[in-house]
Each structure stands twice: as C-alpha cells, then as structure tokens.
Amino acid sequence: SASWPFVLIITGLMVSNDIFRKYYLKPIVQVGVYFFILFSVSVLFLSFLLNTVSTRPFVLGGFVSLLLISLYIYLLSKLVPSVKRNKFYFVLVIAIIFSGMYFLYFANIIPPIPLALREAGVYSSIEREGVEYILTGEKENFLDKIIPGQTITITQGERIYIYSSIFAPADLKTKIYHHWQYYSKKDGKWLDKDRLGFAIIGGRGDGFRGYSFKTNPAPGKWRVLVETERGQVVGRFKFEVVVEIED
Q1: What pLDDT is attached to residue 72?
Q2: Secondary structure class of 214 (helix, strand, coil)
Q3: What pTM did the predictor assign?
Q4: Which UniProt keyword terms apply here (predicted)?
Q5: Residue 110: beta bridge partners?
Q6: Which end of the chain is more exposed for a tag (fewer CB within 10 A), N or C?
C-alpha cells in the first residue's frame, strides 16, 4: 500500500514503547509522541465532524493540535525548569513532526481518513438484483484466498470487472476512483490505463459498493488503485489476466 510509511511509523511507536521504555521517559520524547497522537486524533475527529475527506480537516487539525501543544509546552515550561531551559529543542521537535505530517499528507502517503477499503475483487460478470450484487468470478481454493493476487481467465473481447466496498461515515459524500494500471515488462513499470470514478454515500454497514470494468484487457499483470479525487490510496488490488483465444 502507498500508506506503508505511515503505518510503519505507528507500528514503530507501539513496538518501541516497550523496547525503549527509559528513552520514552524523557519529556522531549513524550511531548513529541503526544503531539503526533494529538495531530492524528484531531484530524480524525474533524473528518467525522465535517463529513469530508478534503484537505480541510487535515489543515484545521494540524493547526488546532499545534495551538494546543504550544499552550501545553508554555505551561510545562512554567512548572518544569528543565523544559524552560530546553524550550528550543521542544519547539524544534514539534516543527519537525508538524512539517513531516504535512509532507506525508500532500505526498498522498497518509491514508484518506476516515475511508477504509472493506473488500475488493476481480470478476468476469457483475449483475445487480435489487440492492444486492451478483458477482461471478474464478473459483478460489484456500491458498488463493490467503495469498494476494487473483488470476482471471477470459476469452478475447470479454470484459473484466473490479468491485470494491468502502466504509465511510454516515452522510459523507465523495467520489472514489478505480485507477487501472498495467505492468509493462518492456518498460519495467506500471503504466496508467484508465481512471474511472463514481460517487459514494457513507453510512452503509457493509460499505458503499461500486465497480468499474475494462473491455478486452491485455494479458498480464494488472492492479487497480482505489483512490480519492486527489489521489490518496484507500487500497489496491493486484491480479493477473489470462486471455484464451477461441478456435
């Protein structure tokens, strides 16, 4: 996932809490971790409050958390002499975390809070009956289900469908895109092929469902990035297309 660096930071904080317990007792480290958590919680709270996945909750959350941590450091410096003596270093740590969070966000590394991909798959047919979707795809054994990446076999000229289900808070309205990419062995990289969007409305327990399709796809490795309008990746799905030529 494109958000792995951010997930790695969260995991690192959780693991290092036990390994470097003595290091975490230092006030400057505690304040830095506190600010990171405060920043994250503020953005999450404002995303739900404002019902949007735009940049507004992140920008507001950043400045609210910056204001609160500044007040906290000011009061702490009045009570703890060592904090007052090292106030410059406290400000430096906060500035590094603040700018780092902004860099990760606008580089689309931080996932689009509060959206979450619940399910995604590739199918040879999708039909809608009432409120339900009837999905037809390849039969999978136990290993196929736990190992990432599906294989779908089609005949030349047929369609393949990507289906996704996304959790979103009630009343949240936004647009989601299926960004189709094909792996070129010649170029050694993923090439953009299509970016197909559809509107979603949050609140459904099993997630908002949607799909896109591609006719007569080239055989080989494909992936679809499920992303927001500004390119933040909610999730991604890899698969391989096998094309059979009819006699």
Answers
A1: 92
A2: strand
A3: 0.78
A4: Membrane, Transmembrane, Transmembrane helix
A5: none
A6: C
Helices and strands per DSSP (H, E), number in the chain: 7, 10
Q: Return d(Cα 238, Cα 57) in angstroms, integer.
A: 31
Q: For the segment 65-110, what is each residue's pLDDT rounded down to a tens digit?
A: 999 999 999 998 888 888 888 889 999 999 999 999 999 899 888 8
Give the tens place of pLDDT for each residue, 93-103.
Answer: 999 999 999 99
Residues 212 and 125: beta-carbon distance below 8 Å: no
- H or E stretch at 37: helix 27-50
Closest of 98, 90, 95, 96 to residue 30, by C-alpha: 90
Averaged confidence pLDDT in the chain: 86
Compute φ and ψ for 178, nearest 5 degrees.
Answer: -100, 110
Strand bridging mode 159-167 / 150-155: unpaired
Instruction: State the angle between helix axes of 87-106 and 27-50 in degrees (0 to 180), rounded to the nearest 10.
Output: 40
Beta-carbon contacts of residue 72 (< 8 Å; ≥ 6 apart)? 31, 34
Q: Residue 86 to residues 73, 93, 99: CA-CA distances in angstroms?
A: 11, 11, 20
Q: How far apart are CA 216 and CA 71, in angstroms?
A: 60
Query: Which tokens is 147 given?
Result: 């190992």
Give the separation between CA 165 and CA 185, rounded to whole angstroms: 30
